[in-house]
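Lecture notes, part 5. Sequence design as translation. It can be helpful to think of inverse folding as translation between two languages: the language of shapes and the language of residues. The source text, in structure tokens, appears below.
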């Protein structure tokens, strides 16, 4: 299983790194304001996709019927209908979207984005079904190959279009490539079935996820949407790039941990073993959160200055706080993962409500002249509240003991605070770096954090022994 963990992390990291490099390249090659416009396409696409998601991919992994060909065909048929409905809604609402974002001249572009959910609707679910047998290669190909293709396409597209239209074409090309790859790596022949029994059971399973995904749009994109409307494309470009740099590794870690732990947790019948594995999974999310913070702390400003150039130097003061928001979000996924393994699909929804509840406050502040610091501060309050709620839910709904998390969580909080709030020192080489004492303090806290994570440490040692023993 440890081999699987390394493979999963490497595969997810490769796909996300390719996506990140692609977006960084586009940001570097087109004007800052144009990148802000391009960011609105991803906002709109994500809104439609997340608002209509029912966790069909999760069902084929989690359900006892996941290997049944008819059940898979029924899920695929439902996915086609979902994609078509999403495309129709976006096409019809494109004018309203353009008006809300104060970009009515781009209505035609938002209608073009409607192609993406329609294309994605024909994805072959074999890439998810094979996860049941811990076969992750097809899913890794599905995630990575389209990103590589669209990265290669950036240069000729920039030479041809030279503006925000590059991102529009890239997103449509990515959807075509991902759907194509899902069929190329599949084992079974693609079939769709419109089984109303499967649809009803999917709705029963997925309605909390549907609401949660609608909330997740607010969690992941709500602030960007409000910044786009109230502060304009140029500020959105700075803010969106900061979110992208800090969110991308967050998604890599969350996806890898879910792919690694969810099948094991879902299949674990023994309550005591489940508790130990759940604690290991949650401690793993803590380690992931602080790893993100350390990476941004050490390399974030240098990345901005060397890769993105002078147009994005305004981003540097916001990197630490933005990374802290994402790190707390990673912590929140631990409880949601454990709850999902026991079919408690509503836990994530409840936790995310706290974050979404901050959006009216953000809008109110922006209308009254606030800027990005206030947006980030309110977001952090929302994430902390949601994380606290997620812990309470698993404590009282799953009867999960939280004592093994107390000390690791305290050290994790100290690390997040330290790496998000320290000032940067400017050295003579022209790059922003943290001070030597600050680096030393972070390393010491890292060592303490690892020492307190007994459940995760025991789990990793056992996996290493099995790996070493063949």
């Amino acid at each position: 299983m440890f081999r699987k963990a390394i493979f999963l992390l490497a595969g997810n990291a490769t796909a996300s790194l390719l996506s990140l490099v692609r977006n960084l390249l586009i940001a570097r090659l087109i004007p800052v304001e144009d990148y802000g416009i391009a960011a609105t396409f991803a906002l709109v696409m994500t809104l439609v996709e997340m608002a209509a998601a029912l966790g069909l991919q999760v069902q084929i992994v989690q359900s006892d019927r996941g290997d049944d060909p008819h059940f898979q065909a029924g899920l695929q048929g439902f996915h086609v209908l979902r994609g078509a409905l999403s495309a129709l809604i976006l096409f019809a609402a494109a004018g309203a979207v353009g008006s809300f974002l104060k970009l009515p001249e781009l209505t035609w572009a938002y209608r073009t984005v409607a192609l993406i959910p329609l294309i994605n609707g024909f994805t072959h679910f074999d890439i998810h079904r094979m996860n049941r047998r811990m076969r992750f290669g097809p899913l890794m190909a599905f995630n990575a190959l389209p990103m590589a293709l669209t990265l290669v396409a950036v240069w000729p597209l920039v030479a041809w279009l030279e503006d925000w239209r590059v991102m529009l074409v890239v997103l449509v090309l990515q959807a075509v490539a991902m759907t194509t790859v899902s069929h190329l790596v599949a084992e079974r022949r693609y079939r769709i079935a419109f089984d109303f029994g499967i649809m009803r059971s999917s709705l029963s399973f997925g309605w909390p996820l549907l609401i949660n995904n609608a909330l997740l749009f607010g969690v992941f994109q709500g602030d960007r949407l409000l910044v786009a409307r109230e502060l304009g494309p140029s500020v959105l470009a700075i803010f969106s790039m900061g979110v992208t740099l800090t969110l991308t590794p967050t998604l890599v870690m969350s996806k890898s941990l879910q792919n690694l732990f969810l099948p094991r947790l879902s299949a674990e019948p023994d309550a005591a073993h489940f508790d130990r594995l759940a604690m290991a999974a949650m401690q793993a999310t803590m380690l992931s959160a602080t790893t993100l913070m350390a990476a941004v702390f050490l390399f974030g400003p240098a990345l901005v200055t060397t890769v993105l150039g002078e147009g994005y130097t305004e981003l540097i003061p916001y990197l630490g706080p933005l990374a802290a928001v994402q790190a707390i979000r990673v912590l929140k996924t631990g409880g949601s993962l454990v709850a999902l393994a026991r079919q408690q699909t509503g836990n994530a929804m409840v936790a995310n409500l706290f974050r979404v509840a901050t959006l009216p406050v953000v809008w109110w502040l922006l209308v009254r002249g606030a800027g990005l610091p206030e947006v980030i501060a309110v977001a952090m309050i929302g994430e902390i509240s949601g994380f606290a709620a997620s812990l309470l839910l698993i404590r009282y709904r799953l009867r999960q003991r939280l004592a093994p998390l107390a000390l690791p969580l305290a050290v994790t909080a100290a690390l997040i605070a330290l790496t998000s709030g320290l000032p940067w020192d400017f050295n003579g080489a022209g790059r922003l770096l943290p001070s030597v004492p600050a680096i030393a303090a972070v390393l010491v806290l890292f060592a303490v954090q690892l020492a307190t994570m007994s459940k995760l440490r025991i789990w990793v040692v056992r996996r290493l022994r099995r790996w070493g023993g063949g």
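The translated text above is only one of many valid answers, since several sequences can fold into similar shapes. Residues 422-431 have pLDDT under 50 and may be disordered.
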